[in-house]
């Protein structure tokens, strides 16, 4: 088992960051995690978001979380992105590869990947 | 569902929705069987509701939040010769020990046994999305035991949220290391 001392070290490193994070009006990435989403592949989609957001250095401003069934089960895995002052963006039929592009282009540069949005879904 | 670990994630989401703040996920294996138990201290269900959640075709609008999760788990258990049992008490029935326990028995050597799959990802996903809930994860096999207690982690982490990236990585590494020895 890994040592709890490593957790204590994380706590020490995070001391200043925690305060910072609470003061930021951030972006929320919400993944549908009901039965429909999970069976369609929402788990790797969510975990790829967590990883890529951190790799791109966005962890302080972007939170990744879940919701229940959004009601469009045929389009799962569904991801909604909420940014302050902007319209919600809904991405459908997501995969880990699509997530990498959404993080690099939408979250990092502010360009919506319109070909993955619900408006372009077949 | 391709892996039982996805069914387990799905059923645990019911406990999240039931407002639980402590969820035990306990896997117990013998050479022949796997028992999965998900136990929460959430709002619980009435006996009538428990009967309904087992039947996918009997869901009315008010019960829709339960949907196919339990039937899919039941299917996965029964196709190996096992079954699923649900015990539940609402806060009205028992103000102190209310909540739900869903248990599934699977026969591992049956040809229709769904592989358990990646429990590490299931645990990480649950903690990532529900940092305010405590999870007690125990997986016992004939070779040894894998354990994770967010309560214990919280004592060390203090105010640092459990879904901090470094913490999630620590959990993933810790469970990976533990799984290498069972």
Q: How would you describe the overall organization of this protein?
A:
The complex is a heterodimer of chains A (122) and B (182). Chain A is α+β, with helices and mostly antiparallel strands and 122 residues long. Chain A has a single domain (25-120), classed as Glutaredoxin (3-Layer(aba) Sandwich). Chain A is 42% helix and 16% strand. Chain A has helices spanning 4-22, 35-40, 42-55, 96-107; strands at 27-32, 62-67, 79-82, 89-91. Chain A is globular and about 50 Å long. Chain B has a single domain, classed as Histidine kinase-like ATPase, C-terminal domain (Heat Shock Protein 90). Chain B has a six-stranded mixed sheet with strand order 3-4-2-1-5-6. In chain B, helix 1 (4-17) packs antiparallel against helix 3, helix 1 runs parallel beside helix 4 and helix 4 (119-129) runs antiparallel to helix 6 (165-180). Classes of the chains: A alpha+beta (122), B alpha+beta (182). Chains A and B meet through helix 1, helix 2, helix 3 and strand 2 of A and helix 1, helix 4, helix 5 and helix 6 of B.
What is the strand and helix layout of this fold?
The complex is a heterodimer of chains A (about 120) and B (about 180).
Chain A: H1 4-22, E1 27-32, H2 35-40, H3 42-55, E2 62-67, E3 79-82, E4 89-91, H4 96-107
Helix pairs in contact in A: 3-4
Chain B: H1 4-17, E1 22-29, E2 33-40, H2 47-53, H3 69-78, E3 83-89, E4 99-107, H4 119-129, E5 134-141, E6 144-149, H5 150-157, H6 165-180
Parallel strand pairs in B: 1-5
Antiparallel strand pairs in B: 1-2, 2-4, 3-4, 5-6
Helix pairs in contact in B: 1-3, 1-4, 4-6
């Amino acid at each position: 088992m890994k040592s709890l001392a490593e957790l204590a070290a994380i706590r020490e490193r995070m001391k200043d960051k925690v305060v910072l994070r609470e003061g930021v009006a951030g972006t929320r990435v919400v993944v549908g995690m009901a039965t429909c989403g999970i069976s369609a592949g929402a788990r790797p989609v969510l975990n790829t978001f967590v990883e890529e957001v951190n790799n791109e250095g966005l962890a302080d401003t972007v939170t990744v979380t879940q919701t229940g069934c959004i009601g469009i089960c045929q389009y799962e895995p569904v991801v909604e992105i909420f940014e302050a002052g902007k319209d919600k963006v809904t991405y459908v039929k997501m995969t880990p590869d699509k997530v990498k592009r959404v993080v690099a282009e939408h979250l990092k540069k502010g360009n919506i990947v319109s070909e993955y949005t619900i408006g372009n879904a077949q | 569902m391709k892996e039982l670990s996805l069914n387990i994630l799905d059923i645990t989401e019911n406990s999240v929705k039931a407002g639980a703040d402590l969820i035990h996920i306990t896997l117990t294996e013998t050479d022949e069987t796997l028992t999965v138990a998900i136990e929460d201290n959430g709002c619980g269900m009435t006996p009538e509701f428990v009967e309904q959640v087992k039947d996918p075709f009997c869901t009315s609008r008010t019960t829709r939040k339960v949907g196919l999760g339990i039937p899919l788990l039941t299917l996965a258990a029964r196709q190996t010769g096992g079954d699923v049992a649900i015990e539940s008490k609402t806060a009205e029935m028992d103000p102190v020990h209310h909540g739900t326990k869903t248990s599934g028995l699977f026969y591992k050597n049956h040809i229709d046994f769904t592989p358990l799959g990646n429990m590490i990802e299931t645990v990480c996903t649950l903690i990532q999305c529900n940092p305010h809930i405590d999870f007690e994860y125990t997986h016992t096999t004939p070779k040894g035991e894998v354990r994770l207690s967010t309560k214990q982690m919280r004592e060390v982490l203090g105010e640092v949220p459990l879904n901090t990236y470094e913490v999630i990585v620590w959990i993933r590494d810790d469970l990976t290391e533990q799984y290498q020895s069972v």
